[in-house]
Design brief:
Oligomer: single chain
Mean pLDDT: 77
Largest sheet: 4 strands, antiparallel
Radius of gyration: 32 Å
Order of helices and strands: HEEHHEHEH
Strand order of the largest sheet: 1-2-4-3
Shape: rod-shaped
Helix content: 40-55%
Distance between the termini: 103 Å
Number of helices: 5
């Protein structure tokens, strides 16, 4: 990025987010441009720090995905003749897993809460009261 930090407008970033394989991603070339480095340097850092880039954070496009992306996005036309398949990155897949786990957890809580409400309603419903017992002594005639 050099000496001065560059700010990237949110709108510009949003225009570079694509939905691939059901995941919102940013292509490596765009991510490198946001950071002010070449895609080659970005790839170099990914190779050097492979353990920091889990599969749910980064993956390579297949040939068909690359061709479709190049056809739809004029700014990625430089990838058209490249033999390398681009990588795409997302920061939200781990968050998506956590949200899914939380939803599952809450779903179980909902079941427990419904069971609890059912038990409370059962306790609140009036039961038939037994015949009142007579108070006093019994005699043979009673």
């Amino acid at each position: 990025m050099g000496e001065a930090k560059r700010a990237v407008a949110v709108g510009v970033i949003q225009q570079r987010i694509f939905l691939i394989r059901g995941v919102k991603v940013i292509v490596d070339a765009d991510l490198a441009a946001f950071y002010g480095v070449s895609a080659k340097r970005l790839h170099e850092q990914v190779r050097r720090n492979a353990d920091r880039f889990p599969a749910d954070f980064m993956f390579r496009l297949n040939r068909e995905e690359k061709d479709e992306l190049v056809a739809k996005c004029g700014h990625l036309s430089g990838l058209k003749h490249s033999t390398a398949l681009p990588r795409v990155f997302t920061e939200h897949r781990e968050l998506a897993k956590r949200v899914a786990a939380l939803e599952t957890h809450l779903a179980h809580h909902d079941e427990h809460i419904l069971t609890l409400f059912s038990a409370i309603k059962e306790l609140m419903s009036p039961e038939e009261l037994p015949e009142p017992r007579r108070i006093g002594f019994r005699t043979n005639g009673d």
